[in-house]
Amino acid sequence: xxxxxxxxxxxxxxxxxxxxxxxxxxxxxxxxxxxxxxxxxxxxxxxxxxxxxxxxxxxxxxxxxxxxxxxxxxxxxxxxxxxxxxxxxxxxxxxxxxxxxxxxxxxxxxxxxxxxxxxxxxxxxxxxxxxxxxxxxxxxxxxxxxxxxxxxxxxxxxxxxxxxxxxxxxxxxxxxxxxxxxxxxxxxxxxxxxxxxxxxxxxxxxxxxxxxxxxxxxxxxxxxxxxxxxxxxxxxxxxxxxxxxxxxxxxxxxxxxxxxxxxxxxxxxxxxxxxxxxxxxxxxxxxxxxx
Length: 291
Fold this sequence. Notes:
Distance between the termini: 23 Å
Order of helices and strands: EHEHEHHEHEHHHEHEHHHH
Structural class: alpha/beta
Number of domains: 1
Number of helices: 13
Strand content: 5-15%
CATH class: Alpha Beta
CATH topology: TIM Barrel
Helix content: 40-55%
Strand order of the largest sheet: 5-4-3-2-1-7-6
CATH superfamily: Glycoside hydrolase/deacetylase
Oligomer: single chain
């Protein structure tokens, strides 16, 4: 149960802390360039049972590295010159068409991991903001950075087929666009699995909660009830929809409040027990998987 966006705002940090202490969140991924980074570090140190990874940001944010050292990652004009591109579409285009320098990607990912480690926090896993490591060039850089930094695990960003049945979302038009995007990107899943087999790094069997992001509830329960045996990561985004969040350029506002309530509810914990879903964190996953 991994909460993304730790470090985005103090309200997001507080919600993740509550979802860990009083709910089912076992891991979180921290934005090294987040506005509430220092507050997040304090929260992590106060909650040693929370496994913490690096939520690698390559879109819609400020780099940790000097922008002059990573020129292919930086927008030269538009609303955020000197920062990452603000939208995923130009990032996807550059990733697919060879616009990124692989060394720039590795340099920035390593810088983000090292900023977290320099604060005294063990980094147990890596994932990416907006799942940019779906794209092979970004995945290759994440793998290289993980090896350089000694991080043992990477998120598998692909949804299992059992969680991608059309009938699950037929009556939920608010999820149709996301469902279609995820279905199209599934074509990259085979390449991901082959690369991970060669790397010696570990990864779960897949991810759930991606299509349901922003609309968790009945659809998520149906997805979890249909999961096959294996180790799966639920991605979640709890938070407080305060003024700080509303100025942070995220599309997820009130939905973060709904996720916080779900993740801390006794009913959801009881449902997980009834489904024989065992909760672990990424630290335990790495210890159980690596010989």
